[in-house]
Amino acid sequence: MSVSDKYVNGNTEQILAEHFKGINAAIAIIADGQPRHYFFGDKVNEHALFEVGSLTKPMVATVASDLVQSHQWLLSEPIAKLLEDKTFTHHQYSLQQLITHTSGLPRLPSNFSPADMNNPYATYDTNQLLVALKATVGDSKAFEYSNYGYAVLAYLLTKQLDGTLDTILNERLFKPLGMNNTVMALSTDNKHEEINLVGAQDYYGERVQPWQFDSLAGAGAAVSSLHDMQQWVSSYWRFEQSNPLLHQKMSATLTPLNEQMSYGWMRQFEHTYWHNGQTGGYASMVIFNPNKQQAVIVLAAGVANVTQIGMLLFNQLDKQ
């Protein structure tokens, strides 16, 4: 029997308990703005911390949207202009292409060669990123998912706003939305040592060490909780009356930039947006429809097909 068959014929909590057997996990199912929570594992609650991997990308893209809305950046602007260095004049793809993974930049930089596969992104610094960028030619216009591209986007944000990525995200996204426990796991400071993550395991049940990031932080360094992810997702509808300016800011990030994407979010049918994340020991998935105030958030600390179960749970919301 498939997961979908089990879901249709069974109890949600039982299905989730089977799917996440032996794995620490936190799930929120939001219908008409009202959440139901499911927790699996010792000490897992709505404030437990998980690595959320590539869900960092729509966070970074939210700040990019902010700069576009305030006319500091143009979507059509060549990246070469934003880099402000003649050695990068060959980077003529636009900001819009960078945000939508159509810049031609590969998944990872050509000189990315991690010394420690248990923590692969920790030592790849900004100098290495810029060396790779000088040697890279983009502008293919075909979709190619790129961690590299979002590292470049994050670098451009730090240049434009004259700050570190964690400070920028904290001031422009985490604090305004009440995401008080969300942090960036950076190898460039000692704060990552204070992050108390839910324990994660690999396919063989072995404990997995946390990841830290340097110049590739924009691709996947965020650590968050179910509570904070719910604060983020619900921000697309909960501020419409109480804070129209913030509502407008968040709604702008859902502006379609092409058929596949808005600002960092993948587009799934009309008015539905999603993204997932994966690190060494963690998997995450968010999907939501702000018009219907529906969402599913899945955070797991182990090997689990969170995208499949997240999509399934979301598709069932209209059938209940």
Tell me what you see in this structure.
With 320 residues, the protein is an alpha+beta fold. 34% of the residues lie in helices and 16% in strands. The chain has helices spanning 3-9, 12-19, 56-69, 79-83, 95-99, 126-135, 147-161, 165-177, 217-220, 226-234, 244-252, 306-316, and strands at residues 24-31, 34-40, 49-51, 183-184, 200-201, 207-208, 222-225, 266-267, 273-278, 283-289, 294-301. It has a six-stranded antiparallel beta sheet with strand order 2-1-11-10-9-8, with helices on both faces. Strands 3-7-4 form a three-stranded antiparallel beta sheet. β8 (266-267) and β9 (273-278) form a beta hairpin. The mean pLDDT is 93.
Q: What's the arrangement of secondary structure elements?
A:
Blueprint: H1 3-9, H2 12-19, E1 24-31, E2 34-40, E3 49-51, H3 56-69, H4 79-83, H5 95-99, H6 126-135, H7 147-161, H8 165-177, E4 183-184, E5 200-201, E6 207-208, H9 217-220, E7 222-225, H10 226-234, H11 244-252, E8 266-267, E9 273-278, E10 283-289, E11 294-301, H12 306-316
Antiparallel strand pairs: 1-2, 1-11, 3-7, 4-7, 5-6, 8-9, 9-10, 10-11
Helix pairs in contact: 1-12, 3-7, 3-8
